Amino acid sequence: MKKIVLIGYMASGKSAVGALLAKKSALKFIDLDSYIVSKIGLSIATVFKEKGEIFFRKIERKYLLEILDQQTSFILSVGGGTPCYGDNMEIINKFSLSVFLRTPVNTLTKRLQNEKQDRPLVASLNNEKLTEFVAKHLFERNPFYEKSKVIIETGEKDILEIVTEISKLSV
Length: 171
Ligand code: S3P
What we know:
By secondary structure, this protein is of the alpha/beta class.
C-alpha cells in the first residue's frame, strides 16, 4: 500500500502537485479540505466564521484519521495547519510517507495575494500585513513541517518537476 501525505504552507502547491502525482501514478487523490467540505456540507470559510477555528481543528483531525485509516493507496494533501495541531504529524508519519513542499516566503506571499479570499486566516489582511503574517506564521510552523520524512525545495520548479521528484522516492 502506498500512502503519501503532502505537507506545506497555504499556497505551497500541495493540491496541484497531489492531483498531478495521483494522475501519473494512477492513485486516488484526496484533498483534506475538500473531504471535510463534502462531509459536513459547509465551506471552510463558513466553518471558521460560524463554528470557529477550534471546531475546525477537531473535525480536521477526525477526518485526517478517517482517511489515514483507509486500507487503500492514496495521495493526500492536508491543510497548511493540519501538521501543527495535537499529534497530527506523528500520526501522519506513522501511517504514510510525508513530503514537505518547502516554498520560499516571497512565493507564498505573492500567490496568496491572489488566492486569499477562500482562506479565512489571511482573507482580511492587506498585502503589507500578509507578508508579515506569512513570515511569522512560517517561523512557528516550520518545526512541525520539518518533521516530514522527505523535504522538497520547490523554489523555481514547476509542478511537473516536483511530481517527478516525488515519484522517484521509494515508498
Ligand atoms: C489553513 C489552511 C487551509 C485550510 C484552512 C486553514 C491553515 O488549507 O485548511 O483555511 O491553517 O494554514 P490550504 O493549506 O490547503 O490552503
